[in-house]
Amino acid sequence: MRVFVNGSGAVCESAVMQAEDLLKLVNTPMPFGKHKGVLIADLPGNYLNWFAREGFPKGEVGRLLQLMQEIDHNGLKDLLRPLRR
């Protein structure tokens, strides 16, 4: 995590994204829950938004879900298209 001060002076934390994280999004299946087995990159936005409201799980899966929610929320899913096998 990287800590920084935003424009309003609030301290924020930001996960540093690595290029390999994008590959993980298109290759890692959801390990639990309603969408178990679905690739994280293919999870529906409303499910990702639910995690954003209720809290992401700890560990790598939570970090990947948070990254995917940001990508989906900002309309950037097309960035993942060339990475799919």
Indicate the topology.
Layout: E1 2-5, E2 11-14, H1 19-27, H2 45-54, H3 59-73
Antiparallel strand pairs: 1-2
Helix pairs in contact: 2-3
Can you characterise this structure?
This protein is mainly alpha-helical and 85 residues long. It has one domain (18-83). The chain is 40% helix and 9% strand. The protein is built from 3 helices and 2 strands; from the N terminus they run E-E-H-H-H. It has helices spanning 19-27, 45-54, 59-73; strands spanning 2-5, 11-14. It has a two-stranded antiparallel sheet. 12% of the residues are buried. Mean pLDDT is 86; it is low at 1-6 and 9-14.
Strand coverage percent: 5-15%
Query: If helices are DSSP runs of H or I spanning 4 or more residues, what is the number of helices?
Result: 3
> What is the count of distinct domains?
1
Cα distance, first to last residue? 30 Å
Low-confidence spans: 1-6, 9-14
**Broad structural category:** mainly alpha
What's the Cα radius of gyration? 13 Å
Describe the biggest sheet? 2 strands, antiparallel
Total beta strands? 2
- Strand order in space, largest sheet: 1-2
Elements, N to C (H/E): EEHHH
Summarize, please.
The protein is mainly alpha-helical and 85 residues long. Helices cover 40% and strands 9% of the residues.
Observed structural traits:
85 residues, mainly alpha, two-stranded antiparallel sheet, 3 helices, 2 strands, 40% helix, 9% strand, disordered N terminus
